[in-house]
Amino acid sequence: MLLAAREKLDHAGMTSSLRTRAVHAGRDDLTDLGVHAAPLDLSTTYPSRDSAAEAARIDAFAAGAELDGPPIYGRVGNPTVERFERALAELEGFEHGVAFASGMAAVSACLLSAVAQGKRHVVAVRPLYGCSDHLLESGLLGTEVTWATPGAVAAALRPDTGLVFVETPANPTLAEADIAELARACGDVPLAVDNTFATPVLQRPGHHGGRMVLHSATKFLGGHGDVMGGIVACDAAEAARLRQIRFATGGVLHPLAGYLLLRGLSTLPLRVNAASATAATLVSRLGEHPAVTAVHYPRIGGPLVAFEVDGDPHALIGAVRLITPAVSLGSVDTLIQHPGSISHRIVDEGDRHGAGVSDQLIRMSVGLEDVEDLWADLEQALKAL
Ligand SMILES: *Cc1c(COP(=O)(O)O)cnc(C)c1O
User: Fold this and answer.
1) Mutational pocket test of ligand 1: of 218, 231, 347, the residue with most ligand atoms within 8 Å of the beta carbon
2) Gap between the Cα atoms of 336 and 317, Å rounded
């Protein structure tokens, strides 16, 4: 049933089909179960009278096997979380999804997977989310990074390269990379694409050769600013390694978070499309404002807008009244922040500037408010510059 639905998504490729699957993916069995909301299983342990049989299952789980039946222990897996994993995997067009406690736990697991295969070299394209940049630059997990422009990725590959890592559109400049071209440049090396900004509504990197598609589920997938999580959509072999790493390192998603994220998926296409339409209107108005020196908006659209101002960006952020002055993105309310001070503060100043993150840059994640109310707030706040 899951496969048939995925075929439909792949071949039809239409928003209506994605909208339908966003509502039903991970929930196809609910009617047969006689329930309407997905069951929330908060168990940390699962009783069994046959502990001899459990020994074999523990062996299988430790090697990364998929959940079959009760998970034995909460760190091995969770039925509610598994619904979210299946749903997001389907929306991204992959067989498997592996969920984590946060986006950074998902990024970490991808890096550890490369290291565990004896390939500690990573090629990455800037800009990346500040903490992803920091994790790679610091080498905290034993990786060694080579930063490359998309066109220089092929030349940067080494025999010990285990991963190529890219964000498109990138946080916070919204710079875009051609995923298909990058995938060709990668050859046999897996290409990991952080798809947090585009979501499967605007782009499915797996269709263009991305082998691992990551999300900070904290953002659009949850969509309401009240749940943290991360997920990787990938093939069976990679999913087994990621589960093995999650089992051993413990960065599991809480079942309640899994429940909220599954619920968030059902409105994902509506939220992303509505916010994108509002963002496009704000982009054209910002472009005409005399205090705005540049507006960055990706070709594929989306709810994120980046712009540079003439004057003190902190004055603008201090002056908004309807818009929420806060880091993060992808919520129902519009959020505005200064990457140089917050989301990308942890990146060395020279590297930050080199990646196009100027001190005048402001990042705004457009929410679901009325466009005229948002523009009125922006317009009055721009006077503070
Ligand atoms: C927020 C973010 C992350 C990190 O996710 P957390 O859930 O905060 O750990 C990774 N990548 C991108 C693009 C992000 O915006």
Assistant:
1) 218
2) 7
pLDDT over 70 at 11, yes or no: no
pLDDT greater than 60 at residue 15: no
- Which residue puts its alpha carbon closest to atom 7 of ligand 1? 103
Domain count within the chain: 1
Does the pLDDT at position 308 exceed 90?
Answer: yes
Can you give the CATH number for the domain in which 289 is found?
A: 3.90.1150.10
Instruction: Provide the β-strand partners of residue 362.
Output: 307
- Verify whether ligand 1 is closer than 6 Å to residue 196 (CB atom): yes
pTM for the whole structure: 0.95
Where residue 245 falls among pLDDT bands split at 50, 70, 90?
very high
Does 290 fall in a domain? Answer: yes
Structure tokens at 141: 């997990």
Segment 99-123 shows an average pLDDT of 98
Q: Is 102 in the pocket of ligand 1 (CB under 6 A)?
A: yes
Cα(246) to ligand 1 centroid in Å equals 18
Clarify whether 219 is annotated catalytic: yes
331: left (phi over 0), alpha (psi -120 to 50) or beta: beta
Catalytic residue (choose from 8, 19, 75, 285): 75
289-293 mean pLDDT: 98
What is the residue range of 357's domain? 269-382
Residue bearing the bigger pLDDT, 64 or 88:
88
Please give the distance, rounded to the nearest whole angstrom, from the Cα atom of residue 104 to the centre of ligand 1: 6
What is the 27 CA–ligand 1 centroid distance (Å)?
26
119 assigned to active site = no
Residue 28 within any structural domain of the chain: no
Q: Is there a catalytic annotation at residue 86?
A: no
Angle CA 288–294–300, to nearest 5: 95
* Annotated active-site residue in 194, 241, 259, 297: 194
- Residue 247 domain-assigned? no
Kindly calculate the radius of gyration of the chain based on its CA atoms and give it in whole angstroms. Answer: 21
**Is residue 116 pLDDT above 80, yes or no?**
yes
Known catalytic residue at 194: yes
Taking each helix axis from N to C end, the angle separating 51-62 and 236-249, rounded to the nearest 10 degrees, works out to 110
Catalytic one among 27, 204, 219, 352? 219
Query: 162 is written with which tokens?
Result: 């285990």
Q: What is the pLDDT of residues 123-133, one digit of tens each?
A: 999 999 999 99
**What local confidence, expressed as pLDDT, does residue 3 receive?**
39
Is residue 198 situated within a structural domain? no
